[in-house]
Design a protein that fits this description.
By secondary structure, the protein is mostly helical. It starts with 13 loop residues before the first helix and ends with a helix.
Length: 79
Amino acid sequence: MEDDLPTVTVRLWRADAIVLFDWLMSTDLDSVPVTHPAQKQALVDLLSRLEWAAEGDVTGATAEEIAAAQQEVARDMGW
């Protein structure tokens, strides 16, 4: 049962969550290079947790909010 599995808590900056959610929703996960099937499954799990944890806030971001989040996250890249 999934509830019995060990978990970790990760706090994300809202802009990061928006960027990640948008990318995961728009990416063909079958085309993402992986070296083990578990990596693809972990991305699917991350997407589902983002949908659950941020329902309406991140999942309902407008195109303008996504663009603003991308700018905020890119500004902090430092490389």
